[in-house]
Design brief:
Elements lengths: L5 E5 L6 H12 L3 E3 H14 L7 H10 L2 E4 L2 E4 L2 E3 L6 H10 L3 H16 L3 E5 L2 H5 L5 E6 L2 H14 L6 H17 L12 E4 L5 H15 L5
Parallel strand pairs: 1-6, 1-7, 2-6, 7-8
Antiparallel strand pairs: 3-4, 4-5
Bound molecules: cytidine-5'-diphosphate (2 copies).
């Protein structure tokens, strides 16, 4: 085993990945890497430049040439920290579209692998256990019913003083799941050696404890 611990958490939108991954990372005192925010950043930059889904070459070039640094709660690009602007429905949907582009994925996967090369990380996304870190010591596939996932997003947006439309959110999540599961290149899939956790009826703390226990076992008892 490598001397550093790699934890991969994958699953569909709203399953609780980032909430759980962040807490596990905090408890282990290692960095949390939110790969979704990297796809969201490229989507944001592409839309800002007026690019559309048919301009794959230009969008891939952005993914290749844009230096980005993950910071607490966001991404730093060209000296600007992007946070809430990455979390809109428009960005979620466009991120899912550009995430199907092979050269975009190649560029971002390389950055993700570089981050995990020299340090322990908890990384969440769609293809971490299958493609980005197939050597991860702990792999979790987190899921929940689609209705529960849409309810969570609904609650999250209400908490930000927005007035979300539940049916619209449900349809958007369905569409994003479909894109993510059916794309040719690195689709969302449970790795063969990943532990499946259905978060529908589990509290965040229960899941965190379960994953910490898996880490503990893998590291021979040392957290
Ligand atoms: O990262 P992902 O899209 O998988 O989900 P998230 O952003 O971590 O979670 C979406 C929302 O669901 C957050 O507001 C969480 O607090 C909430 N959540 C929950 O209420 N119960 C859980 N068991 C997991 C997440
Ligand atoms: O928070 P949520 O689960 O809704 O989304 P996210 O993790 O921020 O990811 C946004 C989009 O980026 C997803 O719908 C995927 O299409 C894409 N993504 C991906 O393809 N591979 C990853 N490792 C992470 C995100």
């Amino acid at each position: 085993m490598n001397s550093h611990l790699l934890v991969a958490i994958d699953g569909p939108a709203g399953a609780g990945k980032s909430t759980v991954a962040k807490r596990v990372a905090r408890r282990l005192e290692i960095p949390y890497v939110d790969t979704g925010s990297m796809y969201r950043t490229i989507a944001w930059l592409a839309l800002k430049e007026g690019l559309t889904a048919d301009q794959e070459a230009e969008i891939s070039e952005l993914a290749l040439s844009t230096p980005m640094t993950l910071v607490e709660g966001g991404v730093k690009v060209h000296d600007v920290v992007l946070k809430d602007e990455l979390r809109t429905s428009e960005i979620s949907n466009f991120a899912s579209t550009i995430a199907a582009m092979p050269r975009v994925r190649e560029a971002l996967v390389r950055k993700q692998q570089e981050i995990a090369q020299l340090q322990s990380v908890v990384m969440d996304g769609r293809d971490i256990g299958t493609h980005v870190l197939p050597q991860a010591h702990v792999k979790v596939f987190l899921t929940a019913s689609i209705e529960e996932r849409a309810r969570r997003r609904f609650g999250e947006l209400q908490g930000k003083n927005q007035s979300p439309d539940y049916e619209k959110l449900l349809q958007e999540i369905k569409q994003r799941d479909e894109n993510d599961r059916n794309r040719t290149f690195s689709p969302l899939r449970q790795a063969k050696d990943a532990i499946l956790i259905d978060s529908t009826d589990q509290t965040i703390e229960e899941m965190v404890e379960m994953i910490l226990e898996l880490c503990c076992t893998k590291m021979g008892g040392a957290e």
